[in-house]
User: Fold 2-amino-3-ketobutyrate coenzyme A ligase, mitochondrial from Stentor coeruleus.
Amino acid sequence: MAYPKFKGIYQTLLKDIHNAGTYKKERIISSKQGMNITTEGKEVLNFCANNYLGYSGSDAASNPAIEATKKYGFGLSSGRIICGTQTIHKQLEEKISKFHSTEDAILYSSCFDANAGVFEALLTKEDAVLTDALNHASIIDGIRLCSAERHIYRHLDMAHLEECLQKAQSKRIRMIVTDGVFSMDGDFAPLPKIVELASRYNALVFVDESHATGFIGQTGRGVPEYFGVQDKIDIINSTLGKAMGGASGGYTTGHKELIDVLRQKSRPYVFSNSLAPMIVGATLGILDDLERTGQTLLGPLKRNIHLFRSRMTEAGFNIIGHKDSPIVPVMIGDAALASMFADKMMTQNIYVIGFSFPVVPKGQARIRVQLSARHTEEQINRAVDAFIAIGKETEIIK
Ligand SMILES: Cc1ncc(COP(=O)(O)O)c(C=O)c1O
Assistant:
């Protein structure tokens, strides 16, 4: 065994990560996901899950998952194109494309996979991709896998995007790639301007809606719906691992031919197992539930977002992100202070996480708060009260 010869390399690497203060520890949760969770032997109020609609840990997700498991089994031991496509996979793809008013959809084991598979399959070196500097890591990796010319435009900087589009005019296809809601900053992509530029410079528009599907926009169809540009978006990638049940799974939806090409060429689709029936069944159930009760959930989510944002601003905190975003970064600045702040919140039984470099730029450490439709007004107020008390104690606010 050669490992002892190499062991030191990894020990040094781990030491370096520790020394940089970026070693990540996992907090162990012994309950279901929810607004109240049990961790480290106590019940805490959870403000750091992507559980925007409260489906994670809910019966609305697990009951149809159980039914689907009974009917279609636990797993398929196959990828989709061998013997891994069941009727429910096709039903869900149809339902997702109906939800987004698109022509077709294709399922993946995760949105990370959807992002890893889409660019390489659709673009060649004759093409160009124009990507926001703060797009998610999976988009960055997916673009790395394709041979298209890469233009990274400054975050939300439409003048810079236009410059990049001008430079890419000689290419065969141009594809603008953006997150709908940016996960670290909670801001929205300026889709009206993006689609205008796309039309002027002949470009396709790709939006990753992982932090929007189900809860942003009038009926939860996401950022394109929020801005009224649904019919101008060519490709949407999204996850089933956040608002839509929170287990795992992802998809691409858009024009028929594009989806068909993905079925032929997208490597995480062709060379990986099909999505487990229980997740497919749960998502079908959740989409039905959203049709029935979606509007009921969106109201409380909006109320919570506005209550938290307005009380925190009033208290003197520097919070960023779009006014209608349930991702609310509370800016702290110093990395050690952000981490200490989160620890102090935990002593008040409020679970929030501090994010610092390299996840966000140096000097811009923050606590990222994520709100859910299922938080009660009392829970929001309790979290804000704890923020205010600790904010004063640490002299972040007066
Ligand atoms: C914008 C964005 N895209 C893609 C992903 C990956 O999604 P999944 O967990 O389904 O792989 C995430 C998850 O953090 C995300 O925030």
Notes: The longest helix spans residues 277-315. DSSP finds 13 helices and 13 strands in the chain. The longest strand covers residues 327-333. The pocket of pyridoxal-5'-phosphate is lined by residues 110-112, 115, 136, 138, 179, 183, 208, 210-211, 239, 241, 250 (CB under 6 Å).
